[in-house]
Fold this sequence. Notes:
Strand order of the largest sheet: 1-2
Largest sheet: 2 strands, antiparallel
Amino acid sequence: MAExxxxxTHCQICGKAIPMSETLCxxxxxxxxxxxxxxxxxxxxxxxxLIFVILIMFILSxxx
Length: 64
């Protein structure tokens, strides 16, 4: 028969079982998470810049 497992959650990076009060299981996972967040922010800034450039191109091409 299966054992009863206490309430827990899983690490967002590696998936290990951790206490409910925590989000990540180790410093290594915390570093990976911070790196992932940093890359996501950079990609968002690039996306916004590209949208801005495309918008400006449409505005300038419409005025000729």
